[in-house]
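Project standup — Tuesday

K.O.: blocked on the structure for the chain from last sprint. Re-posting the sequence here as requested.
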Amino acid sequence: MSIDVGILGGTGAVGQRFIQLFDGHPEFELAAITASDDSAGKSYREAAKWRIDSPIPDAVGDITVRATDPRDVPDDVDLLFSSLPSGIAAEVEPQFTEAGYVVSSNSSNARMADDVPLVIPEVNGDHLDLIEIQRDERGWDGALVKNPNCSTITMVPTLAALDRFGLNRVHVATLQAVSGAGYSGVTSMEIIDNVIPHIGGEESKMETESRKLLGTFDGSEIDHHDVDVSASCNRVPTLDGHLENVWAETAETLTPSDARDAFRDAPTLDLPSAPVPLIEVFEDDDRPQPRLDRTLGGGMQVAVGGVQDTPAGIQYNCLAHNTIRGAAGASLLNGELLVQEGWV
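H.V.: unblocked you, prediction finished:
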């Protein structure tokens, strides 16, 4: 039986990725799309400036866009996916959860709230149990679940794989695609023939979200991991795919061979959008590369290569598609886990 779902903020870049990923999904049937008041009442085809490299699905083009208001979303929608700007999401998402909707959100607001699960299903799916605390404290009938920042979600599955060796300290330098800033976020004159060595707020997100994701739920709260994470985030002129250079120091001796084996052993899940394997390991030092490897596993895999021993610990490069695994696909996977675990 299919589950009726909706998208909050469905006309933007991440919303369009949701539309693409829902097309042919074995469990989810898209039943509602919301957007700004300017778009409400129009067909999706009229409202969206479609920029995905595949056509708007036939079943979606004629859907009437609704206002982003709980009163305008049908009661029989079981699960909502949010790609709203964080400022709007901070105001609107609680209105939907108070109205009884379960919201799987890509928006950055509330990720670090004590009672909001921040989840990568293969890493910390058990953090969904925090929903019970959230409902008790906030009086919600619904629930709010977040996925992490696109650069964080690229790195953390690899760190989780290495945590058996005792993570002490992590340094990461990112080379992030322009799509991470949205269609109008970086002008061509800024990025062509250039690298921008700062992305506002990105470094702190990587440093704090990683510790929450790698932490443990003790039945009442998340005990954040004590790993020390330092990040330097850079915008580079690639379209999609965040490439990251990671140095990981561990308490136990860790060889490149040990690290590769740990990456290959990363757990996978029986969910429609979960990739197998979670981490694709390259032996070549010049892989992964964004243009070649960002669509592995339908854009849901993390790719790793260039694993070597250095004085600063094990060094490797990791890559993921930032608007699929790092955004819409991450929320989609969280939604699938919510259904599997009985929260929807």
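K.O.: great, moving the ticket to review. The longest strand covers residues 167-176. The CA atoms of residues 150 and 326 lie 4 Å apart.
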